[in-house]
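User: I've been going back and forth on whether these two constructs are worth ordering. Before I decide, could you fold them both?

Assistant: Sure. I'll take them in the order you sent them. The first construct and its structure tokens:
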Amino acid sequence: MADEVTSTFIEQTISPEVGASPELEARLAAVVEEGREAWPGVELAPKDFAAHLGAVISDEMGMVEALDELRITDLYLACACGRGDAAALRYFESQVMPRAAAAVARVDALPQFIDEVCADLRVRLLVQDERAPDIMAYIGRGPLVHWVQVAAMRAATSRKRKRRREVPMELPDVVDSLLTIDPEVAPFADQIRQPFAEVFTQALEKLTPRERNVLRMYLIDGVSAEGIGKMYRVHRATVARWITKARQKVHRETRRGLAAAVEMKAGSFESVLGMMWNGIDLSLATWLGEDPPN
């Protein structure tokens, strides 16, 4: 195993013809063991960690000294998280995310805001799509928790600037755009515009934080059900049920509120609702404060 670790590290940092000194070989073996002991239960192949170490060290001289300057245990956890290890993700959630949430609270202490930012942060840092998760960009020059806190503060500041786009008063514009598509429904736009905005907002506010975060990731960020499942450590079928349940809740509550708020013939009411349900993802994306998916 030691030879495999050393050769993998050398491929990343030094020309294979140069080789490694006994001192470097010993240090590599030691750092692998250091990371393993720090996080019991985390499964990370030694050669994968060696490759990651080689990727974050750019200097071809003084490799032993360079390794000594790195936050080895933090790098080990970050690498394991980036590779989707379940135990590593649990450590990250219990030891790192609370500090990230505290950083977000400095920007806005509202629980919903903190939940939203942290959910987005988890996606960017931990979920792999066509590229590696952002946590793999951590290079171990400082504590991992500080690095994540900086990322959390940036995300919170960015979302704070967009918060004004989440106000319910923008929902009538969405209603207009959906209602005017169908000439049979368009005459009812004035009658239903404001009531729909109000009851739709009330229905969405009844979503749980998890339902809201899952819908945001699925509808806006484009994260697959499988990717969301990895983050919550559940099967993708469970995520699919969550999404379906959340949409049904919005449908049910909106229908109930709208029926009480407007007086329309049954046929017209059903036509209007049909148009709204066809545009439910667009309406949800707008309320969640982001551009709708393509």
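The second construct, handled the same way:
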Amino acid sequence: MFKNVETIIDAVNSKLLPMIEAGDTKWLKCWSVSQFKNLQGYKYTGFNVLWLALQSFKSPIYGTFIQWSNQGFKIKKGASSINLLLVSDNIKEIINEDGTKETKNFKFIKTFNVFNAEQVEGNIDSLNHLLDTNVVSKVTALNNCNQYVKNTKAVINHGSNSAYYSPTNDYISIPDIKNFNESKTSSATENYYSTLFHELGHWSGHASRLNRKISNQFASAEYAFEELIAELSSAYLCSQLNVSKEPRTDHAQYLANWAKCIRANKDTILKASGMASRVLKYLNSLQASKSNEDKQVA
């Protein structure tokens, strides 16, 4: 295997393995990003899909330097390319020790570089025909939830490949609503709003709000504790706003991933629950109607 191929695989593993080892299943997400395509409309497959899903670009369109140039685009100065893998099937005839001939199939892997549509200069709108605009959302819009979130005045950017809260820039990033799917235990609607509420839980911890320590090292005890708070907050909000009639299995499965944190201190879940109750009370206080503000959460 070529060294640059190993470099790409190592780069993917360096992002995925800490998530797996920490028990964080957010990368096994309940949404699917738009299908990644090149400028000719061909869809990337296999390992390349996984690698592109870990990039921060919103556009699903990629192309090589030559492909962009041939269509009149210019790569932005300082833009860094993304290495992808090209797997070719080959046939080789070998001669065995007894003199017989045998045909064997083998794969040849090499790399090539691409740039995202956000890294080029030119009329990007001319590429709209490559976008999956006919995707029908499986999420049922819940007006009470949408209004609740709107009343918080949180900055929410839809269209990313992942869901996260940026404490540095104070905004929530989440995939497009049409990209959320049903899971074994939850509907697409439940998955969308529970994900949004989870990130809203993190948002509440900003220094200008409840002032929690939310910028922690991944997989640390502090990080795990903040994840517990956010997921419990999501569960409480799902219950209060009638997204789920009962606690969702997905919440329990997510919280189970932080069992190590809970086992390390038997009071962890109780403390996290208390903090999540504060989150709920704070978010309720931002609503136009204060009728829910005094609701108690066990």
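Notes on the second construct follow. Residues 3-22 form the longest helix (20 residues). The first strand starts at residue 37 and ends at 38.
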